[in-house]
Amino acid sequence: MAYDEVLAARVRDAVRERADFVERRMFGGVAFMVNTHMAVGVGEDELMVHVGTEGHEQAVVDGAHEMRMGERTMRGTVAVGPDVTSDDDALHSWVHRGVDLALALPPKPPKQPRT
């Protein structure tokens, strides 16, 4: 599955407004890592936003839908469809929500090398 490269470029610009980031291939798409956490990601045609478990219900009320990986619901991460992300202001709002959460979390400790 390929990800939407046009959407990824728009997301890249929106993330850059708020924070330094690292791009990582993830879930068949691309994830934007801020402060060692996935803030947002781009899939085939949707934006994935890490909103945290506390922000999950409000994100659904605000127009996102639950993120699913197979049978599992990804509580704390929501998907935002192209009908919403086609609007630049809405896209930036969702991206900034994920970036702000990632910045508020303590960085993850480095992984220990396998022996």
TrEMBL record:
It holds the Pfam family TfoX_N. It comes from the Bacteria. It comes from Isoptericola peretonis. This is TfoX/Sxy family protein. Residues 18-100 form the TfoX N-terminal domain. InterPro entries: TfoX_N.
